[in-house]
Write a structure and sequence with these properties.
- The protein is an alpha+beta fold.
- It is built from 6 helices and 17 strands.
- It has 3 domains: 58 residues, no CATH class; 162 residues, Trypsin-like serine proteases (Thrombin, subunit H, Beta Barrel), CATH 2.40.10; 100 residues, Thrombin, subunit H (Beta Barrel).
């Protein structure tokens, strides 16, 4: 198999055995997609035309915007499909856990998010023994709701700040193999909530489980497209609602409702070892995508990881405990089956109602 060595690695006097290299097929495919550059594992940007030998005649351009962004779907066009997910303890009126997610199906009102935001997925308790509450939905809360925040429709340049508009419930999850669950929007608040503190029980809502097809599209929910394809060195973005405090507030004392994003590069796709026992009760992902140079924050969990054209390749599952800018993505190939089963379940429930 032909490989192309990164010229910047060579220029930096790295030993040839330590220099990054691309498979020729990856370079050729990137050139066919009109991608402008690749980045090696050391994050050196290299023009594809320089290493592929493929030249395309272009018209002179006096636009000083970097060409790599000309075919890139802007983040502002994608954030309308990203939602804020909060686990509300109705006894206290507080959101005790917050994460992100995205709309995967507007005809049924389905959302994909990270399971660990709403389900206890810790393998062990602090003393190191197995977690007896592993797999408990809503962390065992007797009276819980899942609040969904969406960005109101606004013009370009407007703040991408979410308001709480819907309530949802978990309809499908596989806590042993993939950090992903599917939510079904079941209720709509009569009045949007634009608050970050205690949420009372006196808010009116309507049941939207049996609304006719097309209801959520009319509501303005935006669906993000998914893909199972991803390439090494591919530039990706993780979208969501980070709860880091922005350096002003103590983490965990507030809920941030303004969406943002982080940029990184795909460096690996790996499968975990097969379980020693089929009865093993803990979380071990079957497959993950590794993204580097991507400074994610708490609250980004469950947020979509999108490629340059805005298609979702997976959702953020976790950050490396020893390397802050290395994170792990649950790929669409792992949770696409859950979405399919959720659609069938919702269809069955609706059919019973009718």
């Amino acid at each position: 198999m032909k490989e192309i060595v990164c010229p910047d690695c060579i220029a930096s006097h790295k030993p040839i055995t330590h220099a990054s290299a691309w498979k020729w097929t990856a370079v050729h495919n990137a050139a066919k997609r009109d991608q402008e550059e690749l980045r090696c594992k050391s994050a050196h940007p290299v023009k594809i035309s320089f290493i592929s030998g493929e030249y395309k005649e272009t018209q002179p351009s006096y636009d000083f915007t970097p060409a790599i962004y000309e075919t890139c779907t802007p983040v502002s066009k994608l954030l309308d499909g990203v939602v804020l997910v909060g686990l509300l303890d109705k006894m206290t009126g507080r959101i005790i856990r917050a994460g992100s997610g995205f709309v995967v199906d507007t005809s049924r009102g389905l959302i994909v998010t990270a399971s660990h935001t709403l389900i206890d997925m810790d393998n062990h308790v602090p003393d190191g023994s197995p977690n007896p509450k592993f797999g408990q939905w809503y962390y065992g809360l007797e009276d819980a709701e899942v609040l969904i925040g969406v960005i109101p429709q606004a013009g370009d340049g407007e703040s991408k700040t979410a308001v709480y508009r819907y309530l949802a419930k978990v309809v499908m999850a596989d806590v042993r193999n993939v950090d992903t669950c599917v939510l079904w929007i079941t209720k709509k608040l009569v009045t949007d909530l634009d608050i970050d503190d205690e949420i009372g029980n006196d808010h009116a809502f309507e049941d939207v489980r049996y609304k006719p097809q097309g209801y959520f599209e009319q509501e303005g929910l935006t669906k993000l497209q998914t893909t199972t394809a991803c390439e090494y060195e591919e530039r990706v973005r993780i979208l969501g609602y980070n709860q880091g405090g922005e350096g002003l507030l103590k983490v965990g004392t507030h809920i941030n409702r303004t969406a943002d994003f982080s940029v990184g590069y795909v460096c690996k796709r790996f499968q975990c070892p097969i379980r020693e026992s089929k009865d093993e009760e803990n979380f071990r992902p079957r497959e993950e995508i590794v993204v580097i140079r991507c400074p994610t924050k708490g609250g980004h969990s469950g947020g979509p990881c999108v490629n340059q054209v805005g298609k979702v390749i997976g959702i953020l599952s976790r950050t490396d405990p020893t390397e802050a800018q290395r994170c792990y993505i649950a790929p669409t190939t792992e949770w696409g089956r859950l979405v399919h089963l959720a659609k069938k379940r919702v269809k069955f429930v609706r059919r019973l109602q009718n």
